[in-house]
Amino acid sequence: MSIIVTGAAGFIGSNFVLNWLNNNNEKVIALDKLTYAGNLENLKSVENNPNYAFAQGDIGDSTLLAKLFQEHQPRAIVNFAAESHVDRSIHGPDDFMQTNIIGTYRLLEEVRSFFNTLSDDAKTQFRFLHVSTDEVYGTLSASDPAFKETNQYEPNSPYSASKAASDHLVRAWHHTYGLPVLTTNCSNNYGPYHFPEKLIPLCILKALQGQDLPIYGDGQQIRDWLYVVDHCKGIATVLEKGAIGETYNIGGWNEKANLDVVHTLCDLLDELQPREDGKSYKDQITFVKDRPGHDRRYAIDATKISNELGWKPEETFETGIRKTVQWYLDNQDWVANVQSGEYQHWLNKNYS
Ligand code: NAD
Ligand code: TYD
Question: Where is the NAD(P)-binding domain (predicted)?
Fold first, then answer.
């Protein structure tokens, strides 16, 4: 038996592969286009594992997909592949439409062709799990209840609109063609291998490099934060026990304002790697121009996955964020490798 994981060299995909190989004796075929966000360093520790294979390619490449499915006869596909950064989607939505919408469509079509070749028994085992985001539900006011699976989709950014479109395609391929799909909508992840364009790793690295910590607007935007390994375990749980055609929200029950998150990072860095001048990293906090269309609050109601499938996050924000900061301090080589020319170009573009 084997599973194919797309977007496997990215932040969550790589954590999923590492966690899967630790807990299962089943082959994983990692597929990734290796965009700026894909990094084989993340998977270096398993490159000689006999249960692991890597294929470079695009989820929109039907020929490659057909070949991979024929060769490996997977019993499941877990689709992480996406353009994932809101700010980049504002500067240039094209890649988001191409991968998140057209790419998902081509992937669904190839999965459907493959699924139709399976025996009845293999068909009952087969699953297509689509990994999505809470951002498809739009934004909440301070007093609104958290997002449930039944909330209406109201995406506000090019990124969330493209993910919403992909979720709709997945739903339609189930209803129309009977593809056995599962969809997960998760809140903001944090943890090892997080590309430093996103708030938490960006601020850790900028703090250590003596640079400004850029807070958009008033810093009071709220996100629900989940440790990435908990997300990966949630996805594995849905893959194993989820009901076909259902959506499961995954979240950390952990809403925090951005400014509070950055204060926590500064406190941890003050403790673990104090500044040479004895001052706090908080002195580096700088308020910058807000993101256009910035969603004010996201919150996930994860009651369904907890009640129906028995999943709950294991890490608290305090334990998870401490592990994360320590990981970045311990993995300076990884950090140096991802801070390439292209990355500097992005920082200049977004923060100038
Ligand atoms: P990421 O940007 O770190 O990784 C995405 C990976 O997909 C990269 O390795 C990239 O090379 C690959 N990729 C991009 N286009 C591809 C294509 N056309 N074909 C094959 N591979 C391609 O993103 P992430 O944070 O790991 O997110 C993974 C998934 O989880 C995404 O679908 C995202 O929408 C979703 N998600 C992310 C978060 C979060 O907080 N990061 C939260 C909820 C859901
Ligand atoms: P981000 O990590 O980009 O995730 P998302 O936009 O998908 O939630 O951003 C998390 C929050 O942090 C979001 O409200 C935007 C804010 N933010 C900043 O204030 N400064 C920054 O430099 C970045 C990248 C994000």
Answer: 4-324
CATH number at residue 59: 3.40.50.720
Answer whether 338 contacts ligand 1 (Cβ < 6 A): no
Does residue 267 lie within any of the structural domains?
no
Task: Map residue 337 onto helix, strand or coil.
Answer: helix
Residue 238 CA to residue 226 CA, distance in Å, equals: 16
Q: From the CA of 291, how far away is ligand 2's center (Å)?
A: 9
Q: What is the DSSP string of 117-168?
A: TS-HHHHHH-EEEEEEEGGGG----TTSPPB-TTSPP---SHHHHHHHHHHH
- Enclosing domain of residue 331: 2-257+290-344
Q: Give the list of residues 6+ apart from residue 61 with CB closer than 8 angstroms, or none.
A: 106
Number of domains composing the chain: 1
Calculate Rg over the CA atoms of the chain: 20
Euclidean distance between the first and the last CA atom of the chain, given in angstroms as a whole number: 50
For residue range 72-114, what is the model confidence (pLDDT) as tens digits?
999 999 999 999 999 999 999 999 999 999 999 999 999 999 9
Residue 10: pLDDT band by 50, 70, 90 thresholds? Answer: very high
In this structure, is residue 22 part of a structural domain?
A: yes
pTM of the prediction? 0.98
Q: Which H helix or E strand runs over 108?
A: helix 104-116
Residue 184 near residue 235 (C-beta atoms within 8 A): yes
Q: Is 221 in the pocket of ligand 2 (CB under 6 A)?
A: yes
CA distance 54 to 50: 11
**CA 84–ligand 1 middle distance (angstroms):** 5
Cα 36 to chain centroid, rounded:
15
* 262 in a structural domain: no
Q: Is 155 in the pocket of ligand 2 (CB under 6 A)?
A: no
Q: Tell whether 248 is covered by a domain.
A: yes
- Assign 352 a pLDDT band (cuts: 50, 70, 90): confident
